[in-house]
Amino acid sequence: MATFGAAAVATNQNPNKSIEVSQPPSDSVSSLCFSPKANILVATSWDNQVRCWEISRSGTGVASVPKASISHDHPVLCSTLKDDGITVFSGGCDKKVKTWPLLSGGQPVIVAMHDAPIKTIRLL
């Protein structure tokens, strides 16, 4: 008698070739965005954090290296990167939009506020 699902597990370990980032968020991810100019991944999450990883290919696959993170006062719902590929904008339940020069070590700056949580950001 075969065990239910055993064959599927053995033949289909990672069909999407997914990777797990190192030092992932401790709560649900609310948004992801990739830099248009660098191998940078930014994630926002319900643990009030915006995190950044550098993604690179290695001989054995794909690796992620944590680069930086900032905090909001409440869960962060969205992010986007400026077309320079290194300036992050993030917004969330604290009703603030912050901008952050990702790799320069600069501090985040509040650039906008809203009457309600910010669910999406679009740069023009």
Topology:
Layout: H1 6-11, E1 29-34, E2 40-45, E3 49-58, E4 61-71, E5 76-81, E6 87-92, E7 96-101, E8 109-113
Antiparallel strand pairs: 1-2, 2-3, 3-4, 5-6, 6-7, 7-8
Task: Report on the architecture of this protein.
Strand 2 (40-45) and strand 3 form a beta hairpin. Strands 1-2-3-4 form a four-stranded antiparallel sheet, with no helix packed on it. The chain has a four-stranded antiparallel sheet with strand order 5-6-7-8, with no helix packed on it. It is 5% helix and 45% strand. The chain has one helix and eight strands, in the order αββββββββ. It is mainly beta and 124 residues long. The chain has a domain at 29-113: Thrombin, subunit H.
Derived from helix and strand composition plus strand pairing, the structural class reads mainly beta
Would you identify the regions where 5 or more consecutive residues have pLDDT less than 50? none
Give the N-to-C terminal Cα separation. 60 Å
Q: Tally of extended strands?
A: 8
Assess the beta-strand content as a share of residues.
over 45%
The CATH architecture of the domain at 29-113 would be: Beta Barrel
- Label the overall shape: globular
CATH class of the domain at 29-113: Mainly Beta
Order of helix and strand elements from N to C terminus:
HEEEEEEEE
**Number of helices, counting only DSSP H or I runs of 4 residues or more:** 1
Mean pLDDT: 86
Helicity, as a percent range: under 10%
CATH topology label of the domain at 29-113: Thrombin, subunit H
| Rg over CA atoms | 17 Å
How are strands sequenced across the largest beta sheet? Answer: 1-2-3-4
